[in-house]
């Protein structure tokens, strides 16, 4: 009997090296990269991180060490070393190539940065040359391995390979994996946020290794398997994420990093509210930051500031309800007459509302209008929040840890963010949430099926506005003041409507973790890369263009969006057949 089984052609990589040479080349390069981290890379400590000490990696050397270790693990997985098969179950080439690129990018960026910042290649010590040469070897070796997708050229290295069906694990093991993944995420975030604001080179290296290493983990199928496990144990994973966020302040010796964490949570909470309007309902709102301002101003007016014309001091819970109610009312008042519009027309109206709010609070200064908001000066000296006898503005000692003012507000925002996440998930899974999704997909069809489109959209608009107002009440106390300047469509620093919309689109519309990740990236990156402040909007634009080209569904996408934007190989539409001419005539005659 003849064997008709088709053999998949094996195409060599671009470099004509045998596999017996390619794999050792990768391993030698990875070991060399690791070893170089223990050498001096420059003679002067003027370069960020002090890379002058032998035997003690610091700054970018630590990142090179991690990238080299990842590369070594993946090449050992190709050799089928016992216990490492789970790293690359498909035996694909692209994860090895991408992890090798992470080490190459970090080492070569560091060498170039040292030469540029310090004035020439003469400032490089032998360790830097060793790192650059050693990190190049794994890239060359990976290009000599079998091509991941024969006939596709370079694109094959960037296309995610097919993965075998993962085996089943016991629930206890899966929860252990989720716990380890959460712990690693906390370590990575803590390291990134702990990089000094002046060490922009170190943070760029951190971004490089995060991008390429995460890309490699995606190609290896690890992130997909981790996501599946987290989804299967959703409640457990959410609790772990909350615990990790609670642990974060205890890992920081500088309250400034807690301040960054507070602002990230504030903007992430607002982005979640916008996600209801944009992600679930499909309404393009370009003036959403105004609802954040309404909540902040409402809380400032009733929180005991001596510059408030009302001279009242509500407790925080009452001030928070006041901010939410004010934003809710404005949401209904603006949404009522405008939500019958669609598409670009609705976007223009919401953009106008945002500008009207900013101009109005700017003019309520006692000269152009009644003295309510003090115009450009804003309302200042807003007192700190007091909850259950604790003043959040005072430092508190817990054992051997001292929690500063921003750490206290971080805990408060964690509770508020958890409440907002709960509201978002429950609303999205409810009957009204399914109505939002139906409106987003096809409003005409949804209306024909009996859904009251106007009422459903108004509920989404009002709920999103009230959640933004809740975040605004905390922001007013954190900043001690409110003024009109931040509440614009686009600006050099958040909050602004463009920033919030970019956080939702970048992270992934319609998801919970997407806006949280998007807000974290869009706030943390400009904070650490101070030299890019004048080019922040340009960087946002370039990032969004690249995202729309390569991952239009966002970094974290739900299954529906992923199927919409990518070919899946599924026969969603049955094959159409046409009747022959004779058959058509016969049936017509019948």
TrEMBL record:
InterPro entries: ABC_transp_permease, LivM-like. Pfam families: BPD_transp_2. The keyword Repressor does not apply. Keywords: Cell membrane, Membrane, Transmembrane, Transmembrane helix. It is found in: Cell membrane. It is a multi-pass membrane protein. The chain crosses the membrane at residues 21-41, 53-76, 96-116, 128-145, 172-191, 203-223, 235-252, 258-278, 283-302, 314-333, 345-361, 406-425, 458-478, 498-523. It comes from the Bacteria. Coiled coil: none annotated. The keyword Cell inner membrane does not apply. One of its GO terms (molecular function) is branched-chain amino acid transmembrane transporter activity. One of its GO terms (cellular component) is plasma membrane. PANTHER family: HIGH-AFFINITY BRANCHED-CHAIN AMINO ACID TRANSPORT PROTEIN BRAE, HIGH-AFFINITY BRANCHED-CHAIN AMINO ACID TRANSPORT SYSTEM PERMEASE. This is Branched-chain amino acid ABC transporter permease. It comes from Streptomyces griseofuscus. The lineage of its organism: Bacteria, Bacillati, Actinomycetota, Actinomycetes, Kitasatosporales.
């Amino acid at each position: 009997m003849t064997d008709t089984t088709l053999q998949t052609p094996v195409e060599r990589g671009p470099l004509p090296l045998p596999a017996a040479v390619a794999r050792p080349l990768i391993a030698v390069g990875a070991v060399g990269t690791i070893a170089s981290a223990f050498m001096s890379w420059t003679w002067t400590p003027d370069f960020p991180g002090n890379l002058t000490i032998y035997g003690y990696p610091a700054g970018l050397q630590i990142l090179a060490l991690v990238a080299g270790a990842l590369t070594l693990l993946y090449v050992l997985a190709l050799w089928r070393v016992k216990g490492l098969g789970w790293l690359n179950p498909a035996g694909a080439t692209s994860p090895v190539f991408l992890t090798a690129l992470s080490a190459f990018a970090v080492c070569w960026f560091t060498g170039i940065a040292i030469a540029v910042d310090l004035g020439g290649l003469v400032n490089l010590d032998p360790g830097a040359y060793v790192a650059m040469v050693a990190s190049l070897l794994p890239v060359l070796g990976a290009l000599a391995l079998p091509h991941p997708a024969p006939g596709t050229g370079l694109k094959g290295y960037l296309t995610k390979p097919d993965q075998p069906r993962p085996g089943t694990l016991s629930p206890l093991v899966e929860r252990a994996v989720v716990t380890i993944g959460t712990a690693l995420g906390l370590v990575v975030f803590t390291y990134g946020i702990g990089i000094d604001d002046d060490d922009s080179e170190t943070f760029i290296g951190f971004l490089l290794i995060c991008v390429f290493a995460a890309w490699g983990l995606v190609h290896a199928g690890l992130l997909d398997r981790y996501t599946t496990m987290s989804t299967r144990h959703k409640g457990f994973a959410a609790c772990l994420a909350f615990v990790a966020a609670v642990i974060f302040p205890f890992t920081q010796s500088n309250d400034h990093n807690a301040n960054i964490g507070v602002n990230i949570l504030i903007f992430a909470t607002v982005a979640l509210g916008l996600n209801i309007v944009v992600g679930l309902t499909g309404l393009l709102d370009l003036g959403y930051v105004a609802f954040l301002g309404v909540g902040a101003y409402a809380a400032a007016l009733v929180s005991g500031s001596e510059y408030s014309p009302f001279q009242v001091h509500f407790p925080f819970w009452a001030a928070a309800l006041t901010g939410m109610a004010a934003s809710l009312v404005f949401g209904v008042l603006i949404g009522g007459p405008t939500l019958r519009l669609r598409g670009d027309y609705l976007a223009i109206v919401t953009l106008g509302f945002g500008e009207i709010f900013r101009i109005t609070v700017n003019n309520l200064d006692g000269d152009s209008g009644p003295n309510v908001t003090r115009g450009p000066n804003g309302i200042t000296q807003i007192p700190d929040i007091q909850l259950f006898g604790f003043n959040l503005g005072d430092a508190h000692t817990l054992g051997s840890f001292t929690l500063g003012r921003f750490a206290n507000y971080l805990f408060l925002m964690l509770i508020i963010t958890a409440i907002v996440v709960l509201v978002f998930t429950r609303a999205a899974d409810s009957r009204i949430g399914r109505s939002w999704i139906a409106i987003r997909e096809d409003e005409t069809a949804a209306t024909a099926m009996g859904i009251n489109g106007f009422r459903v959209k108004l509920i989404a608009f009002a709920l999103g506005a009230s959640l933004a107002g809740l975040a605004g009440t905390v922001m007013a106390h954190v900043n001690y003041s409110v003024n009109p300047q931040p509440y614009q469509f686009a600006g050099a620093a958040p909050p602004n409507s463009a920033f919030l919309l970019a956080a939702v689109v970048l992270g992934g519309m319609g998801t919970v973790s997407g806006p949280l990740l998007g807000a974290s990236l869009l706030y943390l990156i400009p904070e650490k890369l101070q030299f890019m402040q004048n080019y922040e909007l340009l960087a946002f634009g370039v990032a969004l263009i690249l995202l729309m080209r390569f991952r239009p569904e966002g970094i974290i996408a739900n299954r529906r969006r992923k199927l919409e934007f990518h070919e899946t190989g599924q026969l969603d539409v049955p094959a159409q057949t046409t009747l022959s001419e004779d058959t058509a005539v016969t049936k017509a005659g019948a």
